[in-house]
Amino acid sequence: MKQCIVLHAVDSPRRDMEWRIYMAAKLAERGISSVIGPKSAIRALHARSKNCIFLGRLDSNTGRTKPDREYVEEMEKRGTFLLFLHDEGALYYKGEYEDWVRKIYPEEYFGSKAVKKVLFWGEAQRNFFKDSHYTEKFEISGFPRFDLCKPELRKIDGSDVSDLKEKYGDFVLICGRFASVNMVADDPSALGNRSYNIRVEGGALETKQKEEILRSMFGAWEKVSMEFSQFVPAIARLAIDFPDLNFVLRPHPAEKESFYKDAFGHFSNIFIDKSGDVRPFIRASKALIHSECTTGLEAELSQKPNINFRPCAGHPMSRDYEVAGASDIGLTVKNYGELQKALSALIEEGFSFQKSEYDASHLTVNLEDNFSSAKAICDLIETYAAGNESSKILSKYRSSNYIRHSGILFFKNIVKKALGYMGVERFKKITVGDGDLKFYRYSDNKLEALWFALGSKETTLRRSEDLLFIT
Questions:
Q1: What pLDDT does residue 262 have?
Q2: Is the distance from CB of 364 to CB of 122 less than 8 angstroms?
Q3: Does residue 386 have a pLDDT over 50?
Q4: Are 38 and 422 in contact (CB under 8 A)?
Q5: How far apart are CA 182 and CA 267, in angstroms?
Q6: What are the distances in angstroms from CA 25 to CA 153, 269, 278, 375?
Q7: Within 13 A of 65's CA, how many CA atoms are on the CB side?
Q8: What is the mean pLDDT of the chain?
């Protein structure tokens, strides 16, 4: 029987690990195995593989660095089928939307024999490449992460939702989106060289002067700074004005947790929690308060009421820096008075959900009823698996000491010096993460609980110090 292995490189474990597991479960139902790990580990594994399918983006955000180019060349040599799917594929500033889409989709690789499909979250992104010579490779796939938010998959978070409610009681979730001014140590700063170079790699210098690029960088930072300066005191005022209501504040994965812990340590009804994925928090909450955040879309899919706090809404300076899609989801409020009134109304209405009037499905097709991103992508993978030769990984990465479970491979410390960080750590029975880093580790318990919640059946489990093998 022909074997197919799909490689999944994780960039941000809090954001990407769980939807990767979900995809692996769906692929397992079709007899297709998966390897999930950090980018460095997957690249080390890929260097010793043949005829695998790679689902995701390249190592850098733009895919245009020298190591990225070498990666594509290596894929061509190793018979890898690349299904290019970017994990930040749709939500960008309105005034720079086309620029950012072109930055993250490296068109110069579309003609590579390794690139079998270029997967877009929605029609809005594909339209920018309508004159490309490679339109036959383009597919609207949506993003599997959003599948997990739909009501039919609510059961996968049942245990976590119960735990969160027991821990925090009835609570309103508040999500940060202010990494530009409260960034973690292991991510590029908003005004630093890497942020500038990302724009240059994406071709900005071909159409703009350096001064224009810098003006845009600082303009976006200014808007986020203004929002942050009003968002933080608004949280404090909510805690004072609603003393009988608990608030769980969840920093963005690229935000420092310590700032919020320090600022809100005075309040007994504000809790800071950056653990795991945001989805169970949304489901456990009464409502969500955000500021042009992706979590607004996730709340919409989860059928949770959400308030979009936008203190810069309507300001001429901020118009180009509104986040497409996220700026229009939820009940928009522009100041604390409106925020207080909106939350009071939700409490009186029993936190009832009303679907947003704005339709963002052109940006993210998952918002369409009955659309499954996982099914669309699994169908493509199954087609390519049938026509490809059997996938192979060198025997040095196999072990007689492994955990066997149905349908998914986790590799840890494949090449220890190359790892940098892992999304899975063996022998830790708690979830590990420093809230001031993007770095995060899931425990075995957490991953296995999610796996079983997805309906996968256990077969044989064997552990090794450096490898968790599930097939």
A1: 96
A2: yes
A3: yes
A4: yes
A5: 21
A6: 13, 38, 20, 11
A7: 11
A8: 87
Helix (H) / strand (E) element for 235: namely helix 210-241
pLDDT at 70: 97
Query: 329 with 358: CB under 8 angstroms?
Result: yes
Sign of CA dihedral 150, 252, 195, 217: positive
Q: Is 241 left (phi over 0), alpha (psi -120 to 50) or beta?
A: alpha
Residue 151 CB contacts under 8 Å (≥ 6 apart), including other chains: 302, 303
Does the pLDDT of residue 185 top 60, yes or no? yes
Q: DSSP label at 264?
A: T
Q: What backbone phi and psi angles, to 5 degrees, belong to 313? A: -55, 130
Q: Which of 6-15, 133-142, 157-166, 453-462 has the lowest mean pLDDT?
A: 453-462
Average pLDDT over residues 104-118: 96
Nearest to residue 71, comparing CAs of 97, 117, 29, 40?
A: 40
Per-residue tokens: 184: 């973690």
What does the DSSP assignment read for 42-108?
HHHHHTTEES-EEEE--SSSSS-SHHHHHHHHHHHHTT-EEEEE-TT-S--BGGGHHHHHHHHS-GG
Instruction: Classify 242 as helix, strand or coil.
Output: coil
What would the two tokens of residue 445 be? 């318990």
Please name which of 465, 462, 449 lies closest in space to residue 158, comparing C-alpha atoms: 449
Selection from 86, 45, 34 nearest residue 62 by Cα: 86
Q: Is 234 left (phi over 0), alpha (psi -120 to 50) or beta?
A: alpha
